[in-house]
Amino acid sequence: MSLSEVRDILKQIEDRLTAVDLGNPVVEQAVKDLLNLVEHLVASQHDLLQEVLRLKEQLEQKKKAKTTAKQNGDNDGGDQKRGADHSSEKRRRKRQTPKPIPASDRRSFKKLTVHEEIECPVEPDQLPPDACRLGNESVVTQDIEIKPRNIRFQRHVYYSPSRKKYYRGPLPSGYGRSDFGPDLRALILSLKYCGNMSEPKIREFLENFDVSISAGSLSNILTATAQSFENEFHDLLMAGLASTPYQQTDDTSARVCGQAWHTHILCNPFYTAYFTRPNKDRLTVLAVLQNVESPRFRFNIDTLALLRKKLKVPVKWQLRVAALGEDVEFDATSLKPLLDSWLGEGRESQTRTCIEQAAAIVYYQQQTAVPVVETLVCDDAGQFKLITDQLALCWIHAGRHYERLSPVVTRHAEALDKFAERYWDYYALLQRYCGNPISADADRLRLEFDELFSTRTGYAALDDRIAKTAAKRDELLTVLLHPEVPLHNNASELGARVSARRRDVSLHSRSVRGARAMDIFTTIVQTSKKLGISAYRFLRDRLSHHLEMPSLSACIQNASQNLNASR
Q1: Most exposed among 51, 144, 408, 517, judged by the fewest C-beta atoms under 10 Å?
Q2: Do the strands 157-160 and 165-168 form a parallel or antiparallel pair, or are they unpaired?
Q3: pTM for this one?
Q4: Gap between the Cα atoms of 372 and 370, Å rounded
C-alpha cells in the first residue's frame, strides 16, 4: 500500500470520528494511541525502504567497481535518506525583512584599473561635411591575456682558485627554488583552491598555453609549497581565535590514503580554518583549537572536580589522579604508560577516556599560548561539550528535526504545521533581540521559550521532539546572554561544503602531507574571500617574497577592530 493510499484511508477515518461524539475519555485516548501507532509504523516502514534503496545503490556501485565514500558508510554529516529535503528556509524567509528592489537593472562594477587605452576614430569618408567632434565616449571592457613567460637568467659565475669556491650572481626574489616562477605557482594554487580544479585538469589547462609541466612537478607545487605557509596559517588562526569571543565549528568526512578521516572547520566572520585529522573525538577538537597534533594534559584540583561532577568517574580513579600531585603536566607520549599501568596496556576503557579528556580540557582552559574560546557555536554532538564555558546550539539545526517529521494523520500534520509556524516566529523574535538587546526582552523571551516548548499536541513524535528541544534550553538561549553570538551555525556548514565540493572533484588525499597542504591553502583562500582580498595576489606576493601585502592575521585584527569600533 502506498503512502498516499494510507493518508486517504486515515483521512476517511478521521472524518468519521469527527462526526461521532466519543464521549468517553478512555476511548478518545485509545484513538490517539492508535493514530500514533500508525505514525510509528509508517515511519518505520519508510526508514526500512530508504535503507533498502541505499543498500541497492551501494551494491550497484560495488558492481561497477567504483570506490566512493558512500561504499564505506561515509557522509557529509547530512541526511542519509535519498531525496530528503529538511530545509526550513521557506518558513524562515516569510519572517525576514524583504530587501529593497534596486532602482535600475544596470550592472555595477568595482572601480576598474585601465591597463591600455585605444583610440577608436570614425573613418573620415563616413562623416558629412558639417560634422564636428564633440569629444570622446569611454567604454571600458574587461579582458584577460594568458601566455607563457619563460625567462632565461644569465648568472655571472666566478671561481676563486685560492678558496676553491664558485660565486654566482643571485636570482631575483622568488626564483631559484623551483623551475617555475612565483606567478605560475600562484596560478596553479589558485586554480586548485579557488577554481576547485583537479590536477589533471590544471595540467591540461596549462598545456593549452604552452606551459610544459609534468604531473609530478604539479603535485609537488601543490603540496611542498604549503610548508612555507605554516607560520601564516598559525598566525591567521591565532588572530581569528582572538577576534571574537565565540567560534563556530563543524566537521565533514574526508579520505586520506584511502582511509576515512574527518575535516574540522573552525570559523567566525573574519576567517575559516581547516584541519583534517583521523578522528573527531573531544581530544581531536581540543588539538584543533590549539593547532597541535595532540593535546597536553594537566592534573590538578580542577581536573578532579571535572572527573567527579561532570564525568562521574569512580572514586577509585579519582584517588589515583589526586595522588599524582597538585599540578602535574603530561604530553600524550608520557601519559600513555601511566594509564597503561593503571588500566592495562592497550585497553580503551571509558574510564581512560574520561581521565584523558578531563586533563586535556583543564590544560586547554588554563594555558596561555592560544586564545581560549569562551563560547562554541556547534551542533549537539558530544565531542563539543565541556570544552568551553558556554555552548550555543544552532536553531536551524534544531529546526531540521521538525522538518524531518512526515505525519500521515491529518490532525498530526496540522499540529506540526502550527507548531513549526510558532517555532520560526519565536526565532524571528530572537533575531530582532540580537539587533537590539534589552534585558527586559531577554526575560520575556525566556518565558516565551518555556511556554512554546511545553506544548503538547497529542502527536507523540512531535511531542517527543518538543521535549528534547526544551531540554537544551540553556544552550539554545545563549544568545540572550551574548547577543553577538549567531543563532545558527551556517558559517561552519558553508565551510564544510567547500571541503565536500572538493571531495567531489578529488576523492581523497594520497598522503598526509597532501591533506595538510589542502588544509593550509583552503584556509588561506577562504579567509581571503571573507576579508575581500585576492587570494591569487596574496599567494603571489608571498611566493615572490615581495611581502608587500599585509599578513592575513593583521587583516583579521583590523577587520575585528573596525567592527567593534562601529558598534
Answers
A1: 144
A2: antiparallel
A3: 0.83
A4: 6
